[in-house]
DNA sequence: TCCATAACTTACGATCCGCTACATAAATGG
DNA sequence: CCATTTATGTAGCGGATCGTAAGTTATGGA
């Protein structure tokens, strides 16, 4: 017999909802950034005391890492979906930029990319956790480009990273979705032009 | 008779060089960002004690503001020079982006733009001081574009801000000058294309 | 020589930071 | 019933933060 999911745990039941607390913390981190959110801010927002916080989440950095997982599964840009399509490369990359514009401006109270902005914090642990997600995304984009244009993949990958960091920054600076989208499309012109020239060169 | 510059001040002479101290502080702020530099870091790097620091500079935020002035005069992108030229608009804007790439990667120990990165800090006072410089730069670029293309000035201005923020972020992420320059030029394609289409539309 | 001035050194206050020791409350298992 | 387990609240630790009060030292001016 396996233990069923309905079997209660032993000790005193937790008096707050874990997922709800994580969501609250995510909102805080996204709105203010890792460094600017103190444990006191978190415990107050969740409505618990420090010992409950540390018992449930380990530490501020641990909680942040858990939130990054949550974000990658729910709020982040779905790179596999956008990149695995059998559309032209430039179209896919522009779609990524447009999706970035959409998501970065989705919540006015938590603008920008949680991961990109998180990687800018001073805390070594949190920076490393966010950096791992960034690296993963960068590699996904790099491989996607390199499959067809290995020579230019690095350069275009740099461009994508830079534009996305810029979009996240501009979102935090108050640019709304329309402005971000216009910027993303303007940035896409460089991509389309590059791959158009590539095709010309090949067909010659 | 006016008092000459050689006239010494009354009390005990300062035992450290003011300009040198400001330069040291600028290096620290540029390398780590406003929030991550403590007064203790500054006093230790300069070689003085806190009271001397506060007597000389007022506060951390005051010193930062003074450093922004210094940076605007020495280290920042010379927008008037680059924009007042009677070259095509796109060429000027690309020159700004290329100059940004050059300066943001100039010092590996202090990558990115002191002003752009400073505007991202948590301290209200420092954020406001840096924000004023950013606004001034943005307005200069906006006016430059609007003089000939008023309809598209806002959009292109957004694009410029976003790319420059991205370049600064990528510089902090370790991109060297060559990589930043390639990114800046790729970003310039969107500008050239836009203004090329504009001319086509006019000549029709 | 003595005073006014200004920068110096030492030491500390007040507050916030992440985090925890300790006793207590609320549940399950025997 | 009691033991075990887990969460909770109170209260506080050690350290870092920005900033300052108090007393000392070094200069110029009268």
UniProtKB/TrEMBL annotation, chains A, B:
Pfam families: TetR_N. Keywords: DNA-binding, Transcription, Transcription regulation. It comes from the Bacteria. Residues 15-75 form the HTH tetR-type domain. GO terms for molecular function: DNA binding. InterPro entries: DNA-bd_HTH_TetR-type_CS, Homeodomain-like_sf, HTH_TetR, Tet_transcr_reg_TetR-rel_C_sf. Residues 38-57 bind DNA. Signal peptide: none annotated. PANTHER family: HTH-TYPE TRANSCRIPTIONAL REGULATOR YJDC, TRANSCRIPTIONAL REGULATORY PROTEIN. This is TetR family transcriptional regulator.
């Amino acid at each position: 017999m396996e233990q069923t999911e309905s079997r209660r745990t032993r000790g005193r039941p937790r008096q707050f909802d874990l997922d709800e607390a994580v969501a609250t913390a995510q909102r805080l981190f996204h709105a203010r950034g890792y460094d600017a959110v103190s444990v006191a801010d978190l415990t107050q927002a969740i409505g618990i005391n420090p010992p409950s916080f540390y018992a449930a989440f380990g530490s501020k950095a641990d909680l942040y890492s858990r939130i990054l997982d949550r974000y990658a599964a729910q709020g982040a840009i779905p790179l596999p979906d956008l990149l695995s399509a059998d559309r032209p490369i430039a179209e896919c990359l522009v779609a990524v930029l447009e999706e970035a514009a959409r998501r970065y401006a989705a919540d006015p109270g938590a603008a920008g990319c949680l991961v990109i902005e998180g990687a800018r914090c001073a805390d070594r642990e949190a920076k490393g956790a966010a950096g791992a997600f960034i690296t993963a995304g960068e590699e996904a984009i790099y491989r996607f480009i390199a499959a067809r244009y290995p020579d230019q993949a690095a350069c275009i990958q740099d461009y994508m990273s830079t534009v996305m960091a810029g979009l996240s920054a501009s979102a935090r600076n108050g640019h709304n979705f329309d402005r971000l989208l216009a910027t993303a499309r303007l940035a896409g012109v460089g991509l389309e032009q590059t791959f158009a020239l590539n095709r010309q060169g090949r067909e010659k």
